[in-house]
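I need you to check the entry underneath: sequence plus fold tokens. Let me know what the token row says about the fold.

>
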Amino acid sequence: MTRFQLLQLLIGQAKANGFELRRWYTSNLGLPWQHTRHAIEMLSAEKRYFVLLFSHEFASSFWKGGELMTFQVPSQTFQRRMADGSIGTVTRKAYTRRNTREDAWRYHLREMAVSEDPLRYMRRFLRVEDELEEETIPHIATDGIATAKD
């Protein structure tokens, strides 16, 4: 998935919750509005998308307060002091988390700020099928010729 496609999906989900891209774009970036595709292209160029992702207006729309939000928490490995005083390694499996807090967007902004890649953090909240092995699976085109899916 390209950065442009990912931003398109993220903005689409925020728009469904009341986010107004046009108003945000003209007021925060100070650029003239042409159309949505151009705005997303401008955001994806030169990492301008950080302005959008860390915007309180976008975040509060994307993670709408009071809505049930489901996301995958990755597996974790860390060391801690055990009850007997020794240092042990703890491994936690990945799990699905659901929350309904009113200010969930503030929590996610903090988590996104400390993550290595904010776009990868945001991607966890999209309902998109994983593309792990799709590239190698042949698909039948409409003319009957097998092609690899892009």
